[in-house]
Amino acid sequence: MKRFSVITAFPEIFNGFLSSSIIGRAISSGLIEVELLNLRDFAEGKHRQVDDYTYGGGGMVLMAEPLYKAVQAACSISGRAMVIFPSPQGVMLSQEVVESLAQEDHLIIACGHYEGVDERFVESCVDLELSIGDYVLTGGELPAMVIIDAVSRQLPGVVGKAESVAEDSFFRGFLDHPHYTRPVEWRGKRVPEVLLSGDHGAVLDWRRRQAADRTIVRRPDLLSRANILPYLSCGFYVTLFSAPDISLEELERICTVSGAYGAKKVLVVTPLQKPVTTDLSMVKRFSSLESAMSWIGKSEKKVPYVVGMTEAPCGGVHWLELKRRVLERDLPLSLVFCADELLAKEASHFDTMMCLDERGDKIPLSCEVSVVLDRLFGSR
Ligand code: ADE
Q1: How far is the CA of 97 from the centre of ligand 1 (A)?
Q2: Which residue in 41, 88, 207, 285 is the catalytic one?
Q3: What is d(CA 39, CA 68) in angstroms, rounded to the nearest whole number?
Q4: For the segment 261-274, what is each residue's pLDDT rounded down to a tens digit?
Q5: Cis link prior to 364 (omega < 30° from 0)?
Q6: Where are the domains of the chain?
Q7: Does the domain at residues 230-377 carry the CATH identifier 3.40.1280.10?
């Protein structure tokens, strides 16, 4: 069970939120517990004053001592807790932050109000200052609700279907696809036919494509951190073009890493020097780049998008841009590793180049392949 303790001078703000809908159900079924601590209960004097004027001029700020006492009271039950202070100066709340907060047993959220809180409280008690966006709210109560809502829905059983958490917006770093319900036609607008077809494979493909298109147009910045592979409808191939000196061990390493990242095959163009004794079922050999690319075209039934890796400064696009292009084109992808001189000679075979950091021969080809695959198909 997950505990939230909210320290606030305005506990009544939370009433509707904590008693309704999914959060209300999660509390009544014992999946989460939300304790409200009224800051005034920890204040001194007959007026139970919690705020005072800012030194140096300005508005009112919350005093450190009542906040400190409230945190002590919240901690006294569970011992160890993480103290969050919502503030526009904080780290930006993201799905990754939400997922890591979901690992904590007890979160204490201390809500500021007015101009803020005495900085000495933040220094002494707060583990994480969190912002919910680049705008200023009147207090930390709305951010506290946002944090409780986002963290709670990560917990097993809070949202009805586990898949809706697993597949929702941002789960894989992509935006969500559009949703429709009855009637089939509403004010002249029909639900997309594919959703009525009963063909689950086609529905899945359509949804993935919609999610990809929306992300490319609306939030291309998200692509830098997302794995695009689940959103591609064709396979990708690692092509080693003229690497005659490559050892079998290196080739095995390239096959392992390519397979782990989801490549269909490793295409070796021009024969290996040594005979292959190991079982390299990932490897297919070709005598020319053209024949290798046409083999991909035949097996995927689509002409591949051929990308050469270059170390020439400004010789190609940045990997972030390549990710966007690959997703946008949604074609079979061939990542071709070869020397820059060969790239120039065979330029007509390439659709684009991706710029690699210039390292000369300093790192083995298998490492180069790993770096490229992680940039394109890793998630962070
Ligand atoms: N308090 C006031 N504005 C805030 C914001 N944008 N995020 C978190 N806490 C806040």
Answers
A1: 16
A2: 88
A3: 10
A4: 999 999 999 865 55
A5: no
A6: 2-152, 185-226, 230-377
A7: yes
